[in-house]
């Protein structure tokens, strides 16, 4: 059977190369990827909704104590699946894609195609306060990566197809094809050229058509703008931009803070127990934290904050608008906590939709504060709810254009385009200055593995240190005599530098040919002077596995050296020469800009 399968694939390859150009084939694949990513998104949503509906029918949700139980059950099921089926550590969906693009040539394990389809619905369906967008993008990316591998697509085109998959997934979930394309460009640092534009467009259209085919006209946000932008409200939108920026900084810092709090809990069982109970307590106090939160957003958009808040321990005071404002502000504060706790406890999900929930609550709070301040001002609470979402997306994701076009598309028009730009721009500028990297990118940036729109930095990130390490240097030992060095190393070497190592290959220093030149022809010194006499420190050294290519290039620039040794935990590995590094850089740059 495998032989027959290989023969069939070979026939398909031959037919493809003969009848379909590379450009046309990429267009075809982008459509296929968009359809499959859209289908994965629809599947994720339906499985999650099925779990939620089953729990609603089988459990009386008005009994709030049950909220303690559900997150623990969901996290336990995810833990069992990861331990006995997946058998690998779970990584953040979008971060793992960014890593594969920068350091793994866009190759993603085929297990990721189905893993997210299982663990994300279990997490969200049982009350985990995370979103499905990240898992949908990860599933689509895995599909596109493995399709590219199947058809022997090069790494650059494979990266484009992964971006197409993300566009297809987002377009399917939100039915917003333009925002989906912009997300792929902003988050995956894709160069928007005519070469990439058309595949992204085809994938995005395919994704939204898949959603229409399976879901009909059902949309996440059934809302039409009735109150247009008023110039007199400009100052309030500026204030909302500042508020969403502060909330974005809080969101990001809270994420890393809670992740660090869970690190001392080495056992996944302890993380599961602590995280599950913590989420349960928060759900008891603030039920809208349950799951993704789209119902909460929709209720706020239609002005029904009572339904949005649901049953809480504060129902006796819900008629007081200041209690309502306090509860909504509580959602703004605790959504980030609940989301991060879910992920730290072992759950799977994304941060995009929790960002929207937090933004909608904050926008609504700001509008209610203005309307109830007693100063005679009146603003649209639904508009502020929408624009609050845009502000948080722009700040947390560092994706202002995605935020603007997403909200514009899901509301069916551009009536709020000006306030969207005001709030999103202010939020992005303030947050970007306060927080250099997003939740997706910080760890990758710190390790030098992040692709950006900066071409020089992107090319260095794509380079692999292993490809520029040279090992044809003759090493010497400190106890060797000058005569032994000349006979065993200098006479047989084509290089003018010699690494000094001990018996365990630990790097001790270097000797240059110039260091021994004046002693080379004095035979009397051959047996009296040892190598350790000439040994000195290298100008610097490259730490294998720790130094990024940007750091390597910086070390050459700072030292002015032409060769630097490479060590791995003190063990000598070889040298990197400036000339070979620059040659590899030029080669990668040509490949990158083709």
TrEMBL record:
<feature type="transmembrane region" description="Helical">
    <location>
        <begin position="197"/>
        <end position="215"/>
    </location>
</feature>
<dbReference type="InterPro" id="IPR014743">
    <property type="entry name" value="Cl-channel_core"/>
</dbReference>
<feature type="transmembrane region" description="Helical">
    <location>
        <begin position="321"/>
        <end position="338"/>
    </location>
</feature>
<feature type="transmembrane region" description="Helical">
    <location>
        <begin position="414"/>
        <end position="431"/>
    </location>
</feature>
<keyword id="KW-0868">Chloride</keyword>
<dbReference type="InterPro" id="IPR000644">
    <property type="entry name" value="CBS_dom"/>
</dbReference>
<keyword id="KW-0813">Transport</keyword>
<feature type="transmembrane region" description="Helical">
    <location>
        <begin position="24"/>
        <end position="44"/>
    </location>
</feature>
<dbReference type="Pfam" id="PF00571">
    <property type="entry name" value="CBS"/>
</dbReference>
<feature type="transmembrane region" description="Helical">
    <location>
        <begin position="160"/>
        <end position="185"/>
    </location>
</feature>
<feature type="transmembrane region" description="Helical">
    <location>
        <begin position="270"/>
        <end position="290"/>
    </location>
</feature>
<dbReference type="Pfam" id="PF00654">
    <property type="entry name" value="Voltage_CLC"/>
</dbReference>
<keyword id="KW-0472">Membrane</keyword>
<keyword id="KW-0407">Ion channel</keyword>
<dbReference type="InterPro" id="IPR050368">
    <property type="entry name" value="ClC-type_chloride_channel"/>
</dbReference>
<feature type="domain" description="CBS">
    <location>
        <begin position="469"/>
        <end position="520"/>
    </location>
</feature>
<keyword id="KW-0869">Chloride channel</keyword>
<feature type="transmembrane region" description="Helical">
    <location>
        <begin position="235"/>
        <end position="258"/>
    </location>
</feature>
<feature type="transmembrane region" description="Helical">
    <location>
        <begin position="64"/>
        <end position="82"/>
    </location>
</feature>
<dbReference type="InterPro" id="IPR001807">
    <property type="entry name" value="ClC"/>
</dbReference>
<feature type="transmembrane region" description="Helical">
    <location>
        <begin position="345"/>
        <end position="366"/>
    </location>
</feature>
<keyword id="KW-1133">Transmembrane helix</keyword>
<dbReference type="InterPro" id="IPR046342">
    <property type="entry name" value="CBS_dom_sf"/>
</dbReference>
<keyword id="KW-0812">Transmembrane</keyword>
<protein>
    <submittedName>
        <fullName>Chloride channel protein, CIC family</fullName>
    </submittedName>
</protein>
<keyword id="KW-0406">Ion transport</keyword>
